[in-house]
Amino acid sequence: IVSALATDLSLYLLVSCSRRCGSMTFGNVAKSAYGRSLEFITTCVVFFLVGCLLVGLMILNKGIWAPIIVAGLSFLLPGQGETAEDGTTTPLQDAIVLFFLLASMMPFLLKKDLTSLRHICFVGFFSIAVLCVAMVYRAAELNLSQPEFFYTNVKWIATNNADVLNALPIILLAFLCSFNIISVSCSLVNPTRDRVKEVIHKSVFLSFLLMYVFGIAGYLFAYGSTNGNILLCFDPTDPVILLGRIGCGITTLFALPMNALPCRDALLSLASQI
Questions:
Q1: Terminus-to-terminus CA distance in the chain, angstroms?
Q2: What is the pLDDT of residues 49-80, one digit of tens each?
Q3: What predicted TM-score, i.e. pTM, was given to this entire model?
Q4: Which residues make Cβ contacts (< 8 Å) with residue 204, sequence separation at least 6?
Q5: Contact, 14 vs 178, CB < 8 A?
Q6: Phi first, then psi: what are they for 228, rounded to 5°?
Q7: Longest Cα pair distance anywhere in the chain, in angstroms?
Q8: Which of 131, 132, 158, 231 is the most buried (most CB within 10 A)?
Q9: Handedness of CA 54, 57, 61, 63 (dihedral sign)
């Protein structure tokens, strides 16, 4: 909750600063406030941060789609693709799947502005909501069939400081969208201050609500056995979770062009800032 409120405030402050100085990029805002040297540093930080995020998204896409695609090929073409009983795949299978995923997304990765990608966010939000609903269904099914399971396994508060420190980065990065907010505000039709504020408030609230339900549903299903990748806690052959896994895969797949754009813009602007 604190992270969501802090994100909402920081996004509005960033947009307000960009409006006051007439800047359309993160680096230009830093330049207007502190000079050219900080513009270069800020652009480098944005490039490094979003670049690492892109690497993480590629690893996540590989982990989600490789078992689905390989299992699908094995079903359609027996002997052409095999996965382990737990749904894991080989490094070669992962690499081939990732290559074809990136190739299929290339038209979106080459877009020059966020306006041309405006419909992707709706596809992504709906797709991840499918996984959220699937997890809520399985968590409710487990706890309603075994009411005592909740009382014997639930942990109301962390008892280990290491657990808190491990969870903190996830909470802080759950609303990581600062590098896109200026471009988004500039792309709005009639971007008045009240309209921008409304978009920020509603977007952060919907993201908070979805992630909060997502986290609670995942914990109420696996409790102390909760994995860093919550999908690994479910049976890979579960049809309900498979549908949600596909929805999650669509979301992470379409997140690639949304994050590739600011990363590419930051890289291309570095030469003129040196």
A1: 40
A2: 888 889 988 988 888 888 888 877 776 666 55
A3: 0.76
A4: 4, 7, 8, 11, 175
A5: yes
A6: -60, -35
A7: 63
A8: 131
A9: positive
